[in-house]
Design a protein that fits this description.
Blueprint lengths: L2 H24 L8 E13 L2 E12 L5 E13 L11 E5 L1 E2 L2 H10 L14 E2 L3 E11 L10 E8 L4 E7 L2
Antiparallel strand pairs: 1-2, 2-7, 3-4, 3-6, 3-8, 5-7, 8-9
Length: about 170
């Protein structure tokens, strides 16, 4: 093998290596995910037919990329007893309303509700490879007795459109 052939092979290897590195770096966002569990669920009646639900969570971002929260959805989920076929919805879903940081802070201060963890809102970052103890507060248009014992599903969406979801039960 000549020196010229070795140089060409090294240049080709460097170009291919650079291409692989670029593809991995640009697609790293697709590896994003979150895992988590509820550490506490607190229910506070706001009106006769509305409940403030405060979820204290431990959220882990096991990926090498931070998760930038672009959307948060919380649903009460229960099996549909009327589902007879696969075409019927298998679950009944009750959506919640996400409250702003200012609304939650003023409500909690006024009612002297203890803050156990920092509030997670849209625009916050969950660091790569870390676990964050945080809380989410939402409003359900239902009295507290209609929420107890049900499963809550939390969905997060990152700025890149990557979605993560986990569930927990209301005691």
């Amino acid at each position: 093998m000549t020196k010229q052939m070795i140089v060409i092979l090294l240049v080709v290897a460097a170009v291919l290596g650079g291409g692989v590195y670029y593809v991995v770096q640009t697609n790293q966002a697709q590896m994003l995910t979150l895992t988590g569990k509820f550490s506490d669920v607190r229910l506070f009646p706001m009106t006769e037919n509305a409940t403030l639900v405060i979820l204290d969570l431990a959220i882990t971002d096991p990926s090498p990329v931070p998760f930038y929260v672009n959307d948060i959805q919380v649903h009460r989920v229960e099996p549909n007893p009327d589902a007879k076929s696969k075409e019927d919805p298998q679950f009944l879903v009750m959506e919640s309303g996400l409250l702003s940081k200012a609304e939650i802070t003023s409500y909690m201060e006024f009612h002297k509700i203890k803050t156990l963890n920092p509030l997670l809102v849209i625009g916050d970052k969950i660091p790569a490879g870390k676990t964050a103890d945080t809380m989410i507060a939402v409003r359900f248009e239902a009295p507290p007795k209609e929420l107890k014992g049900y499963t809550l599903r939390i969905r997060f969406r990152d700025l890149n459109g990557v979605k993560a979801e986990f569930t927990g039960r209301i005691p």
